[in-house]
Write a structure and sequence with these properties.
Two copies of one chain form a homodimer.
Chain A lengths: L2 H7 L1 H22 L7 E5 L3 H17 L3 E3 L2 H5 L10 E7 L5 H12 L4 E5 L5 H5 L2 E4 L12 H16 L4 H8 L1 H14 L12 E5 L5 H15 L2 E5 L1 H5 L11 E5 L6 H5 L2 H6 L3 E6 L2 H5 L3 E4 L9 H19 L18
Parallel strand pairs in A: 1-2, 1-3, 3-4, 4-5, 6-7, 6-8, 8-9, 9-10
Helix pairs in contact in A: 2-7, 2-9, 3-7, 3-10, 7-8, 9-15, 10-15
Amino acid sequence: MSWLETELSAQPEALARLLEQQTGTAREAAKLFRGQDIRYLLIASRGSSSNAARYAQYLLGRAHRVPVMFATPSLYTIYNQPPRLDGAFVIGISQSGASPDVVSVLTEARSQGRPTLALTNAVDSPLAQAADVVLPLEAGEEHAVAATKTYMNSLGAIALLFSEIGPDAVAQEELARMPEALAAQIELSLGDPPELEEYRDAAGLTVVARGVNYGTAFEIALKIRELSGLMTEAYSPADLMHGPIAAVQPGWPVIVVAPNGPARPTVEEVFAPLRARGARLIAVSDVRAVLRRAQTRLPLAPGVPEWLSPLTAVVPGQAMALRLTQLRELDLDSPRGLRKITLTT
Amino acid sequence: MSWLETELSAQPEALARLLEQQTGTAREAAKLFRGQDIRYLLIASRGSSSNAARYAQYLLGRAHRVPVMFATPSLYTIYNQPPRLDGAFVIGISQSGASPDVVSVLTEARSQGRPTLALTNAVDSPLAQAADVVLPLEAGEEHAVAATKTYMNSLGAIALLFSEIGPDAVAQEELARMPEALAAQIELSLGDPPELEEYRDAAGLTVVARGVNYGTAFEIALKIRELSGLMTEAYSPADLMHGPIAAVQPGWPVIVVAPNGPARPTVEEVFAPLRARGARLIAVSDVRAVLRRAQTRLPLAPGVPEWLSPLTAVVPGQAMALRLTQLRELDLDSPRGLRKITLTT
C-alpha cells in the first residue's frame, strides 16, 4: 500500500493522539489569546498550512471576535519593510517548520515583543525555535509528499485552540467525538467510492465552498492538483460569480462543498448558474437534498456540527484525489517534481 | 470599436483626471491614516477591486508600516459574528459601490466608530453613503463588463493615497508622470502586439508575480479568463512551488510578470522549474534579460519605478486578453453570462 493511503487512513488515530497529548498545551496557548492588547491575529503559512490558516481565520476570528490576517512574507524577506505589529498575536503554521519565509515572520514578531505560537509537526524545527509557545501537531512522521494527516492535525490544533479559548465545554465535547466521526467518514469515502472514471481526463476541476469550509475548497483543490496533475482551483461562490465563472465550459466538473450550516444556502446558489453552463456537478454534503442536486455524490458522515465539518469534508476530496491519481496511473507518494519540504523566501 | 478597446485606450486620460481632480480629497483621506489608534487596515472588495486591494496591501502597508488585511464578508453577512474592529481603518473598494457584502463591512465598521473610506466610481452608491470619506475614482462611465479604467483608477487612487501619506514629494512627482508612461505602454502593447495565435486554444494559462505586482497577476488572470473564457489562474512563485506546479504540463502557457525591482530575482527563479516541465513562457518586463528568457515577450515601457509598475504591467495582460478574445471570436463587451454589477452577500 502507498504511504498516502496509509496516512490518509491513519488520520483518526493521529487526531486522537493530538487531542490526548496536547490539550494541556493548547490550554496554555489559549491564554496568549487573552492578552490585553491583542487586536488581531497574524498567520504565516504556505501550501496546505495556508488552507488550515483559512479555517483559523473563520474559527479563531469567531472565538474571540478578533480579525485574522495572513502575512505577506515578501514585505519581510524582499522589501525589508516588515510592518509594525502592535496589537498582533502571531501564529506560524508549518508541517516541517522549515520554510524561511514563515520563520522570518515569527522572528520579526518576536523582535517586536509580540506573542508568537507555532503549530508544527517538527518540534525542533527553526519555526519551533522562533516561537514563544509550540503546539506540536502529533501527526507522526509523514512520508507522502501530499499532506493528509498533518493537514488534519493542523485543523485539529486550531479546533482545540478554539475550544480552549473561552473555554467552551460544549465545543470540547464535540471535538472529542471527532476521531470517531473521522473514522466513519473515511469508511464512507474509501469503502463505498463513487464511480469517478468520467473525470479521469478532465481538463481540470473547480472546487467551491464558503465560510468555515473555504479552506476545505482550497485543500481539496491542492490535493487533487498535486497528486493527479489535473488543473484544479478553488473559489468562494461570490468570487466565482464576480467573473471567473466565465471560464466554466460545458462538461467542466465543479465540486460544491456544502455541509449543513449557515453557509449552506449561499453555497447552494451556485448550482443554478453552473447547471446553466452545463457544468458537471459533484456535491460534498451531509444533506440528502444537496447531494441530489449533483450527478456525483460524495456524502458526509452525519452528526458533525458545522464548525468541525472541515475535518470530515476534506476526506471525500482526499479520496477523490487518491482515486483520480490511481486512474491516471501516477505515483501516489511522489508527485512528479515535488518535494516534501519546499523552502521559499 | 468595442467599449473594451475604447476604455482600455482611455486609461491614461482617466488616470490624469483622477490625479487632477482628487489629489485634495486624497490628502484629506490620508489624514485618516495618521489616527493615533490605527493598528491595521481592513479592506473589503470583490472581483477586480480585490486585485487592486492586493496592491494596497503592499503599498499602504509599506507607507505607514501598518499591516493590511482583507475582510471575510461571510462573518458579517452569514455568521452574524462580525469581528471587533478596534485598531482598524476600514477601506471599501468597489467600482459600482453596490455589492451588499462590501457595504456590510463598512456599515459595521462605522457602527463600531471606526474610520471608513470608500474608493468608488459611483459617488451616490450605497458604499459611498456608508463611508466617512469618499475618494471618487473619476474613471467616467464604464460600459464593458470587464473592468479596465476603473481598475486602473483604483490603483491610481491607492498610489495617490500612498504619496499623500507622509507626504512624499518624490512619490508625488513619480505618480504625476504616470499618465504619460501609461500612454506609452498602451502604444507599446497595442501598437506592436506579439503573435498570440498559438495560445488561442490553450487549455488555460497561469500568471505568476510577487510583491507589489501580486495583484497584477490576479488581474491579468481575471481579465483573460472573463473575456476569453480560458481557464486562467494566478500564483505567487512561492505558492506555485508549494504543490500547484504539479499541474503544469508540457506546453502549458505561463505568464511571468517581472518588472525591475526587489521582487524580480525571486520571480525569475520560476523560469528554470517551469522550463523543466516544458511550459511555454511569456514574460512581462522592462528588463531585456528577463524578456529573452521567454518565447513570447510582452515589453514594459521603461523608466517606471517598481512601486508604480502595476499601473503599466497590467496593460500587456489587458491587451493579451483583448487579442485572445478576438482570436476566439467572442464578444468583447459582454462575456457570456456575466453582468456589469454582481450583487453577492
